[in-house]
């Protein structure tokens, strides 16, 4: 069991309830990363399902959970021969923090009938850049759990030169050697810096709603994350992330709605 597996572990208490312990190592300046929290919820939802993989997840973030004990409550809605539906809630101190709808199925490792090209061609990993290590007092503990190598133009904001477009692109893998799986993908779709950093905004940008789809089981190696946005207006922005595995295959895609950063 890797550190990430342990940090997302869900222990069954009864037919619908799972005990979890939210790990402080996945914080982004205080709040816990939304992708990490989805991975925790999905561990429980998949355990309660007759199928192996979370193919579609929609999560609404009501509150920001804190590190420590919590529960995932899973309510099965319908199960057929090839797909099942459930509602799952992350509850802490009796209050629902995140509510999600999850579709599970069992994916097969088959060749696609059709597959499009990546939205952007990344430079080689060795030509990409790493962000500076955060200061201990920043509370950015998530950085220590993963490796990100950025396409240099998308982190111009770090030096006061944002590109002017909502975008973020990077290679991603866990810091501890681990082949990517659906739970790592749940984390991956939400680990890029908010795309609005490249359009000139800064600060914590809380996610309100995030939907992501598992499209294929990933091959070992680096994942490629291609993030973009379509509209920044009235204090809101959208962010879409395309995830490709080391073979170039599309393995996950997401879209989220978030508030423009503040602070």
From TrEMBL:
<dbReference type="Pfam" id="PF13622">
    <property type="entry name" value="4HBT_3"/>
</dbReference>
<dbReference type="Pfam" id="PF20789">
    <property type="entry name" value="4HBT_3C"/>
</dbReference>
<feature type="domain" description="Acyl-CoA thioesterase-like C-terminal">
    <location>
        <begin position="126"/>
        <end position="260"/>
    </location>
</feature>
<feature type="domain" description="Acyl-CoA thioesterase-like N-terminal HotDog">
    <location>
        <begin position="25"/>
        <end position="106"/>
    </location>
</feature>
<dbReference type="InterPro" id="IPR042171">
    <property type="entry name" value="Acyl-CoA_hotdog"/>
</dbReference>
<dbReference type="InterPro" id="IPR052389">
    <property type="entry name" value="Sec_Metab_Biosynth-Assoc"/>
</dbReference>
<dbReference type="InterPro" id="IPR049449">
    <property type="entry name" value="TesB_ACOT8-like_N"/>
</dbReference>
<dbReference type="InterPro" id="IPR029069">
    <property type="entry name" value="HotDog_dom_sf"/>
</dbReference>
<dbReference type="InterPro" id="IPR049450">
    <property type="entry name" value="ACOT8-like_C"/>
</dbReference>
<protein>
    <submittedName>
        <fullName>Thioesterase family protein</fullName>
    </submittedName>
</protein>
